[in-house]
Amino acid sequence: AAIEYVRYLRCVDAEEARLKPGLHQALRDWRERKQHAVRRRAQDLKHDPETVITELHESAFGIDWMLRHWRTLHTLLVSGRGWTGRDLITALHLLGHPATSPTDPTGEPALVWSLAAAAFPKVVQPATATPGDPSAADRLRSFVDHQIARLETLRPIVWDDVDRPEADAIEVAALIDTSKDGQLCHRYRRDAFRDFHKSLNALTRLRSERSKTFAREAKLMDASRSQHSDRPAYVPPPPPDSRNEPPFNPATSPDDRHNPKPKSEIRNATPGAFSSPDQRTEGRTNERTEADRTAPAPPPTAPSPPQAPPSRRTTAPDPA
Fold this sequence. Notes:
Blueprint: H1 2-42, H2 49-56, H3 60-79, H4 85-94, H5 108-119, H6 134-174, H7 180-230
């Protein structure tokens, strides 16, 4: 991925170095064509000033043309030379008015006409010797400054809306080299870009698989660690089973064993008159029912001889 990315950047640099002079030349030619079209359109200003001025406001190059003429008029006022009749006609044309006396006294053309006549009387009446009014010249200069400021504010707006998209299209068209070498460079750049994304996707897939493997191994390690922590280190084997002893219950101790037989007396404490003497031995141990093993055993009795069965009578029955 790194190699293909470096290759792609080198292809881009090579194409830009190859097409950059042609790009500047294409933009320069486009600007010259636009300026030439504005100059040709401005030649009709004296015939139809209102329509021409409206069209010039729709292009940044037309606004540049009007700004250039307004600045020239402003320079004449600042330098003290003043306006002539041609300069007044130019100002009226820039306002979209023909070179005649305005009939509407409230419009901008009438204001310019009156201020120019007051500041420079020879503009309207060449044969007069009346001196000009300096305050009228100052007001006329303020009016020209206002027109210049208005056009300077309008120029970037018109450029972004109208002329910039056209300039971008010219720039994109200039970046396409239709020659054989240009097509070859374009193919190299496209292949490098495709291989770069292919390698990057493979790297992303490997990282995903590796993260899944690491997560699985970590889960197994945690499970084994928890099992080892719960299991004691040594577990003794269970004791062997014994038939003579009951199974061991660790929950109870020998002291807690329950005696199933109640502690009650079987015989009376005082024997009665008709009761037979106790035949059991007197030796007792811990009040248990079984006899003391240390008491002497009774003497053995001699076995009695077998008795003969009774004999049957052999005499004859009595006839009586």
